[in-house]
Amino acid sequence: MFENIQNVTVIGSGTMGNGICHVFAQAGFKVNMMDINQAALDKALVTIGKNMDRQIAKAAMTEEAKAQALANIITYTDMASAVKEADLVIEAATENIDLKLKIFTQLDEFAPAKAILASNTSSISLTRIASHTKRQGRVIGMHFMNPVPVMKLVEIINGYATDDDVTKTIHGLSAYIGKVPCVVNDFPGFISNRILMPLINEAILALQEGVAGVAEIDTIMKLGMAHPMGPLQLADFIGLDTCFSIMNVLHMGFGNQKYAPATTLANMVQAGFLGVKSGEGFYKYTPGSKELVVSSRFKS
């Protein structure tokens, strides 16, 4: 079903975008990586190369395969040029509804009529995104997990009007690139974040109410529930701004107060404590250090 997908364009070269480019290029696809900033594209290529070096060190890739994969990637700063021959376009921009709607309006104009338009959104309605195109049946969600080269899941989200053959194509394609596809329907947060984000938010509420400290909450969830990472540390890795954004999507989408973001989460985002990306969230992150140090703001 996916044999007609040969040319893939990825919009966005950040953590998710460059990871998606990595897996498709490694699988032999011709990949156009598009961003508005050439410096960001250059940085993304360096990141992809370093991540492939890790695979080489683990004997999961050869030097020759790395060279071929990198040769499969071409960078663009102009969207029209990047998507003009695309069979599949995957949008991996910031989780901002206005930005995504703008991008999909442009993609609908510039991409070939046959092209499937996919979004890596983690919470925003695919039906709403598709409504800003004239090809609603060819719009679908491909929610990859971070880090993309490592994590196996692709959460495939059907919009209200997504064609069955598009879903089958993306399902087969996801399996071909070494992922495990799971198809869900279009509700706020889908499955992954509808379950994960309230868990993270509840951990923040427990911290806010003084039930336990940062280290205690994470240790209990790791050792008691066999989670590989505690919810507060995970929130730092995801980005507290992203967590806040998704909780707002859930809150507005369901109209239920149980999804309201914790005040502590809102305050941290407002103050710029976003987790790993800003150097401090629930923990403090020092470049080159692997020690997990709780932020002084949460120490008794």
How would you explain this protein's 3D organization?
The protein has 300 residues and is an alpha/beta fold. Helix content is 46%, strand content 15%. Strands 3-2-1-4-5-6-7-8 form an eight-stranded mixed β-sheet, with helices on both faces. A two-stranded antiparallel ribbon has the order 9-10.
Q: What labels would you give this structure?
A:
300 residues; alpha/beta; eight-stranded mixed beta sheet; two-stranded antiparallel ribbon; 10 strands; 46% helix; 15% strand
What class, by secondary structure content?
alpha/beta
Radius of gyration: 20 Å
Mean pLDDT: 96
Shape: globular
The largest beta-sheet arranges its strands as: 3-2-1-4-5-6-7-8
Give the low-pLDDT segments: none
End-to-end distance: 57 Å
Tell me how many strands there are: 10
Task: Give the H and E element order.
Answer: EHEHHEHEHEHEEHEHHHHHEE
Major sheet summary line: 8 strands, mixed
Q: Can you count the helices?
A: 12
Helix share, percent: 40-55%
Percent strand equals 5-15%
